[in-house]
Write a structure and sequence with these properties.
Order of helices and strands: EEHHEEEHHEHEEEHHEEEEEHEEEE
Distance between the termini: 15 Å
CATH architecture: 4-Layer Sandwich
Number of domains: 1
Largest sheet: 7 strands, mixed
Number of strands: 18
CATH topology: Metallo-beta-lactamase, Chain A
Structural class: alpha+beta
Radius of gyration: 18 Å
CATH class: Alpha Beta
Number of helices: 8
Helix content: 10-25%
Strand order of the largest sheet: 10-9-6-5-4-1-18
Shape: globular
């Protein structure tokens, strides 16, 4: 059996409107657990997971990228610098060409933006040696979304990168609601946030992406206003949390600025809550962390 090491990689942080992040939940409730700034924005992590085995270095998601411009960065409070993904990988002594596999949860700009970078006004892939694992139905949806969520898909940025991987025969199209990505790494899809949102998991962790973006979204009614079908999300969450508890998995929160993960639990009423939460040392401000998911 191959050994595994896990790293929490955070190339940047950004901000989104707190009301949009918590949907129908009143501000007096969410503001207690996730305070906003003067523009009602809350700070969010862009947390990636790097899985290192004897033969593979597998990255999940890419962050937001560095090419959007000053107006965009100011609007979303982006805190990255030039080449954020490369710098985050360097913090764990890796180079972009070391990455063998890239798993994309979905194609929203804050998850896939780091797949490319502008070189001489042309988008070039950052991870040129990687095989990209992408859900085919989600990719198709990204080209014909509703007007409500079209702004989340920066097709002009990611499409040249996807085609580069297709042309270089470095893409693995995933299909169905669940299956295997790589030996020992599987996926399940949720449908409420965006169709075929992919959640990678193994025997220790599951990457929650935007189904449960922070530890404060474990409660079933706490659903983002960004979700294309919030009612579906509530059903997705119940199904996934049952699965997570049965498998005793650690949830990895892509956007939580404090906790990188948590166990799922139920309270005395039978409602889902966070169990044990896990965070990095407050004194460790490096861009990546080794994490134990035993």
């Amino acid at each position: 059996m191959q050994s595994k090491k896990y790293f929490s990689v955070e190339p940047a942080r950004f901000k989104l409107d707190g009301g949009a992040m918590f949907g129908i939940i009143p501000k007096p409730l969410w503001h207690k657990v996730h305070p906003s700034d003067e523009l009602n924005r809350i700070e969010l992590a862009l947390r990636l997971i790097l899985i290192q085995t004897d033969t593979k270095k597998i990255l999940i998601d890419t962050g937001i990228g560095d090419y959007h411009g000053v107006k965009f960065d100011e609007r979303f409070g982006v805190t990255d610098s030039a080449s954020p993904l490369e710098k985050a990988l360097a913090a764990i002594n890796l180079k972009p060409d070391d990455i063998t596999d890239l798993i994309l949860s979905h194609l929203h700009f804050d998850h896939v933006g780091g797949i490319g970078k502008l070189i001489n006004d042309k988008m070039e892939p950052v991870l040129k040696k990687a095989v990209v694992h992408l859900h085919k139905n989600h990719y198709e949806y990204s080209h014909k979304p509703t007007e409500r969520d079209a702004g989340s898909f920066h097709v002009a940025d990611f499409e040249p990168m996807v085609q580069w991987y297709v042309e270089h025969k470095q893409i693995h199209w995933l299909e169905g609601m669940e299956g295997e990505i790589l030996p020992g790494i599987h996926f399940k899809c949720s449908m409420g946030h965006t169709p075929y949102l992919l959640h990678a998991y193994d025997d220790h962790f599951i990457y929650m992406a935007d189904l449960i973006p922070t530890s404060n979204h474990v409660s079933i009614p706490w659903v983002m206003g960004y979700d294309i079908a919030p009612g579906v999300t509530t059903e997705d969450k119940k199904h996934f949390l049952d699965f997570i508890m049965k498998k005793n998995l650690t949830m990895i929160f892509e956007h939580d600025p404090v906790y990188f993960g948590a166990k799922a639990a139920k309270n005395e009423k039978g409602d889902f809550i966070c169990g044990e939460k896990f965070k990095h040392s407050d004194n460790d401000l490096s861009a990546a962390y080794s994490i134990s998911l035993n």
